[in-house]
Amino acid sequence: MERTTLDLWVGMFVVAGIGALVVLAMKVGNLSTYNVSDTYQLQAYFSNIGGLKPKASIKSAGVLVGRVTEINLDTERYEARVVMSIDKRYQFPRDTFANILTSGLLGEQYIGLSPGGDSEMLKGGEVIKKTQSAVVLEDLIGKFLYNKAEGSK
Amino acid sequence: MAIVSSLRGIGSRVVNGVWRIGYATRFFLMTLLYSGASFRRFHLTVKEMFSSGVMSLIIILVAGMFVGMVLGLQGYETLKRYGSESALGTLVALSLVRELGPVLAALLFASRAGSAMTAEIGLMKATEQISAMEMMAVNPIARVIAPRFWGGVISLPLLTAMFSSLGVFGGYVVGVVLIGVDEGSFWSQMQAAVDFQHDVLNGVIKSFVFGVAVTVIALFEGYDAPPTAEGVSGATTRTVVQSSLAILILDFILTAFMFRGD
Amino acid sequence: MSSEALVEIRDVNFAYDSRPILKGINMTFPKGKLVAIMGLSGCGKTTILRHIGGVLKPTRGYVKVDGQVIHDLDQDGLYRMRRKMGMLFQFGALFTDMTVYDNVAFQMREHTDLPEEIIHDLVMMKLHAVGLHGTQDLLPAELSGGMARRVALARTIALDPMLIMYDEPFAGLDPISLTVVGQLIRRLNDALGATSVVVTHDVQESLKIVDYIYFVSDGAIIAEGTADDIRASGETFVHQFVYGEMDGPIPFHYPGGNYNMDLGVGA
């Protein structure tokens, strides 16, 4: 008799604990947007990736469509090679434009994909040709000051 | 002379400490070795999950809720200065899931369940229940220690998950419901920033490691306690002090391994 | 002392660190008999029991139980041997987190695959044997000292051991419980056909029930014999012990130096 009420309590405890883990995974974490569907790989070369990191998000029209899986330096071109995994549900035209953007002024960096008008779609493993590098704030400020100095002459 | 005797004192403390570490390690290995019965007769472990897990629920839930609420309040005050209140969800969730959840839940667990374990084992030893078991040809490590070990090790990650989720809820109540941070950005920024594998799973691994550390310390201190009233009370104090230190030190080491370089 | 010996202790010496506890102990416990080991607190009585149970290893000599040298057995052999032994600890050592029923059933569940119905019947029989049928749902904390001791006795005999050891079974009992426990020890020994060893310093109670007595003082046997032999013993220590005299070979005063000096009077 006593053991069954005890089992009941422990059972509820375990269910609640696992429930909390599921909440952490789905509601707090990104498991609901991650791993759920199949992905395919795309690559892009950037001359400067700024502060982009693996696992950064990839968005198109503000919708999360994938994540950065790998970043390394291509020593033939001396450019950064970024590997992205994109949700299979989303296909992009061949002339899609990949941009490194910043969310907010100081927020983290992500890749924005702006689709072009090509009728052929990018396939897994292919390279996005058109890219724009990160805007590095220091360079921007430097340029601004330089222009100011030029203008005041 | 005073120098010689104090040197001798230090020396004996060091030797004694090393001796205890060795003994505790052997005790831990014996516990693992004789763990078969804890799973074959799982009701033994279930009983211990009740006394260490279910009995710690209230303190864990209340503490989790309030820690989350405080995080919401303090986080909002700080983030407001930079105009990034929308990152409140990220701040609350990341600090809970990565650090505060595992560490605080383990500290509470050590003082609630760990001290109780030490006192119980110590008293069982003082009243010769352990010797009696041994004379009945029942291995006390298998029958008494191992079920408590596994009960604790299974319970703590579950408690931690509850602590963290309730904390996030507390942060939500303060941030969104009371202060009025935008609900959509609270959740979406949180979900964008919290990675299941990197953050949630690492938090679970942490709490598992803490669970092992706390229960081993608690059980060892109880098993090794001198069979007197002072012996048991001293062992209980040592359990809380040592397991708290162990949690914080292990947390630093684990954090260095898990979250380095990003 | 005729008949076959169940336990033989031969020339056992034992020392904690370098402090000798037992010095050349020789004892024989014949099958079916109830033997007492008596002596003052701290004279090594319990140490002898621990040797029989295989908890301690003698530094010299051997302890044979049922034909096997107990301290040469490995862990499994020792545990097999201990299943045939029962030991009643000084204050019962009942498991405080279990009911009376679970305490008595403990060894049956640990060591046998008996179905729960049979265990139930066995527990009831054991509790009945100690006169405590009806207490099965109580916790040890709810029992009086005498009842707890009897429950512990029921637990000790749960698996019908061939050898029952009692460590101070009379300690802290009121006179009625004391007689009850004493009579139970005798009756259970005879009913189970077991061999019993009682370690005690309660002379009057044990003289009533035991077959043979060893007197131990300072780690050595100083007298042995039947109850009548002991009562009539000319050994001054035994006389002091049996009749509870205040002064004798065991002095009233701790050897604490010169009392007058401590008071600062005279020299």
How would you characterize this protein structure?
The complex is a heterotrimer of chains A (153), B (262) and C (267). Chain A is α/β, with parallel strands linked by helices and 153 residues long. Chain A folds into two domains: 1-36; 37-142, no CATH class. Chain A contains two helices and eight strands. In chain A, strands 7-1-4-3-2-6-5-8 form an eight-stranded mixed β-sheet, with no helix packed on it. In chain A, strand 3 (63-74) and strand 4 (79-87) form a beta hairpin. The longest helix of chain A is centred in the N-terminal third of the chain and has 27 residues, at 2-28. Chain B is mainly alpha-helical. Chain B is 87% helix and 0% strand. Chain B contains ten helices and no strands. In chain C, the strands form two sheets. Chain C has a six-stranded mixed β-sheet, with helices on both faces. In chain C, strands 2-1-4-5 form a four-stranded antiparallel β-sheet, with helices on one face. The N and C termini of chain C lie far apart (55 Å). Chain A binds chain B through residues 3, 6-7, 9-10, 13-14, 16-18, 20-21, 23-25, 27-35, 53-55, 57, 64, 104, 106-107, and chain B through 43, 46-47, 49-50, 53-54, 57, 82, 84, 93, 97, 155, 157-159, 161-162, 164-166, 168, 187, 190-192, 194-196, 198-200, 203-204, 262.
Please sum up the structure shown.
The complex is a heterotrimer of chains A (153), B (262) and C (267). Chain A is α/β, with parallel strands linked by helices. Chain A is built from two helices and eight strands.
What key phrases describe this protein's structure?
heterotrimer, A: 153 residues, alpha/beta, 2 domains, 8-stranded mixed beta sheet, 2 helices, 8 strands, 27% helix, 33% strand, elongated, B: 262 residues, mainly alpha, 87% helix
**What is the terminal separation of chain B in angstroms?**
55 Å
List the total number of helices of chain B: 10
Major beta sheet of chain C, specifics?
A: 6 strands, mixed
Number of helix segments of chain C? 10
Compute the gyration radius of chain C: what is it? 20 Å
Radius of gyration of chain B: 22 Å
Unreliable sequence segments of chain C: none
How many beta-strand elements of chain B?
0
Structural class category of chain C: alpha/beta
Question: How do the SSEs of chain C run, as a string of H and E?
Answer: EEEHEEHEHHHEHEHEEHHH
Which bin fits the share of residues in helices of chain C? Answer: 25-40%
Tell me the fraction of residues in β-strands of chain C, as a range: 15-25%
Residue share in β-strands of chain B = under 5%
**DSSP strand tally of chain C:** 10
Describe the main β-sheet of chain B briefly.
none
Largest contact between protein chains?
A-B, 32 and 35 residues
